[in-house]
Amino acid sequence: MLIPEVLKKLSQSLDLLGDQITEAELQELLLKYPITYSAVEPWVTFQDSGYTRNVMIRTQHHEILCCCWLPGQSSPIHDHVKSKSFVTVLSGVATEHLFSDHLGKARFTLLRHLDQGAVYGEVGLIHRLGNQVSNNIPLVTLHIYLPPIELNSPDDYPGGRVFEEEKV
Ligand SMILES: [Fe+2]
């Protein structure tokens, strides 16, 4: 797949800044190199069986993916192991449930909606991301992980380490 110039530039800048990059620095980078829906369109693909994770660029230091979600699709509850994670919404509205780690189980803390264009970045985040049924339109998100997610257990899924939700 031909990588658009704007994605290459973003990738090169990420390598220069390294994994200590802050959310503010990334926001600045995304203003300089705006990644629009049309830049990622060649990777946009939907499946009825679940949301898709489409790797656009992967280096030793970072990976850039686009994820595509039909209404009603969501990730499992997970963290990103040791990687810093940034999400930006390219089309649609993402729904995110945030959790804290309570003795190895995920305890729900907050529900938020991520609008198009917003950038969110956190380390140690435990969340479930998805496209809620009532949104009625597909969701496309851009994800940056620094360094690429490293999976350690067969219980992990490609997006990170899976958590069970605490029973209350
Ligand atoms: Fe995630």
Describe the structure.
The protein has a 5-stranded antiparallel beta sheet. The protein has one domain: Jelly Rolls, CATH 2.60.120. The protein has 3 helices and 10 strands, in the order αααββββββββββ. The protein is of the alpha+beta class and 168 residues long. Fe (ii) ion (FE2) binds next to β8.
Question: If helices are DSSP runs of H or I spanning 4 or more residues, what is the number of helices?
Answer: 3
CATH topology (level 3) name = Jelly Rolls
Oligomer: single chain
N- to C-terminal distance: 47 Å
Strand content: 35-45%
Uncertain parts: none
Structural class based on helices, strands and sheet pairing: alpha+beta
Helix content: 10-25%
What is the mean predicted local confidence, pLDDT?
Answer: 92
Q: Supply Rg.
A: 15 Å
Bound molecules: fe (ii) ion
Q: Quick one: overall form?
A: globular
Q: Please provide the count of β strands.
A: 10
Q: In order across it, which strands form the biggest sheet?
A: 1-2-9-4-7
Supply the CATH architecture.
Answer: Sandwich
Query: CATH superfamily assignment?
Result: Jelly Rolls
Layout: helices, strands, pairs:
Elements: H1 5-17, H2 23-32, H3 37-40, E1 52-58, E2 63-69, E3 78-79, E4 84-91, E5 94-102, E6 105-114, E7 119-123, E8 126-130, E9 139-146, E10 161-162
Antiparallel strand pairs: 1-2, 2-9, 3-10, 4-7, 4-9, 5-6, 5-8
Bound molecules: fe (ii) ion.
